[in-house]
UniProtKB/TrEMBL annotation:
GO terms for cellular component: efflux pump complex. InterPro entries: MdtA-like_C. It comes from Paenibacillus silvestris. Pfam families: RND-MFP_C. It comes from the Bacteria. This is HlyD family efflux transporter periplasmic adaptor subunit. Residues 287-343 form the Multidrug resistance protein MdtA-like C-terminal permuted SH3 domain. GO terms for molecular function: efflux transmembrane transporter activity. Gene3D superfamilies: 2.40.420.20.
Length: 344
């Protein structure tokens, strides 16, 4: 069958028209919205203008007053039993007061009997001299009896004296043993400590020895007394490095973390057991670059700051010097007038 070429063209044109007509019936696509333009937010910095100033490193502690003159009381012989403690903590004693007593056994009875023996010897001597004053040998024997009785009495009295610890000076009891009545007392074991309340010093025992770094003997100390509220000037008398060595391990450990501050004699409000705040100027720099502590940044051992450069940040390596809790000295890397960005 022969196809008419005009008919073919007619059907082709008709199909194209119908296709275009169908497309015109579809919903028209909406044009995509353009994203809104966002203005960049300007970053706000907390700034510090670099300038020179003074920086002071201070150490502040709270210490306790104790006597600088103390006396330890102990017995020099062992194997005796404790009879009684005649004082208690805080007692004020005067010379001659009995502090501690040991069990005396029958010493007092023996002393009383020996006094009678001495008296008998003395009476016998008198009688002999009255009856036969020319018997030199007999009189000498009587004198020997008297001397022997006196020696025995003196020995017994010395033994009795050794059963007591007697205060040799005035003071306050600041330590007393916890040994109980009847317990055996060891020789040279301190039972009572008397402290002179007139000669006082301020003592501080650190929990972290690092806090005492830089403190040296002779440094000035400002001491504020808790009881009176007054402030006095003191001096560092002893530091861990200036303490003399000792074989007492416990004492050596205390000395390694203790500083002693001297205060004027008769300071108002200073008494044994009272507290006082001490402030020590450890180190000071004048006319140096100083910035706030929060301006210094550290990362992996690197010390640096961020400064404002136009509207952006710039990092600068610095060398720090004296550092306090709020400030830091900058030895190199910064100059006056620069603006350091502080950490929030």
């Amino acid at each position: 069958m022969k196809v008419n070429p005009f008919a073919s063209k007619f059907f082709l044109i008709t199909g194209v028209v119908l296709l275009l007509a169908g497309c015109s019936l579809l919903p028209k696509e909406e044009e995509a919205l353009k994203p809104p333009l966002v203005k960049p937010v300007k970053e706000n910095f907390e700034l510090y203008e670099v300038k020179k100033g003074n920086i002071t490193k201070k150490a502040t502690f709270m210490g306790t007053f104790k006597s600088s003159q103390t006396s330890n009381y102990y017995f020099k012989e062992s194997d005796h039993r404790l009879a009684a403690l005649r004082v208690k903590l805080g007692d004020v004693v005067k010379p001659g007061d009995v502090l501690v007593e040991l069990e005396k056994g029958d010493l007092e009875t023996r002393i009383a009997l020996q006094k009678l023996n001495l008296e008998k010897a003395q009476i016998a001597s008198v009688q002999t001299r009255q009856v036969d004053p020319d018997q030199a040998l007999t009189l000498r024997l009587k004198d020997i009896d008297i001397e022997a009785a006196k020696l025995q009495l003196t020995s017994l009295q010395a033994q009795l004296d050794k059963t007591k610890l007697v205060a040799e000076s005035s003071g306050i009891v600041t330590f007393i043993t916890d040994a109980q009545q009847g317990s055996v007392v060891d020789a040279f074991n301190t039972l009572v400590v008397l402290s002179d309340p007139e000669h006082l010093e301020l003592s501080y025992e650190a929990t972290d020895i690092g806090t005492l770094t830089g403190i040296e003997v002779g440094m000035n100390v400002e001491v504020k007394l808790a009881k009176s509220g007054s402030t006095v000037q003191g001096k560092v008398l002893r530091t861990p490095s200036s303490t003399p060595p000792t074989d007492n391990k416990a004492q050596a450990e205390r000395n390694a973390k203790t500083i002693i501050i001297g205060v004027p004699l008769g300071t108002e409000g200073a008494e044994i057991g009272a507290s006082g705040d001490m402030t020590i100027v450890v180190e000071q720099r004048e006319n140096v670059i100083v910035i706030p502590r929060k301006g210094l940044r550290t990362y992996l051992g690197r010390d640096y700051v961020q400064v404002l450069n136009g509207e952006s940040r710039k990092e600068i390596d610095v060398e720090k010097g004296l550092v306090t809790s709020t400030e830091v000295e900058i030895r190199s890397g910064l100059k006056e007038g620069q603006n350091v960005i502080l950490e929030n």
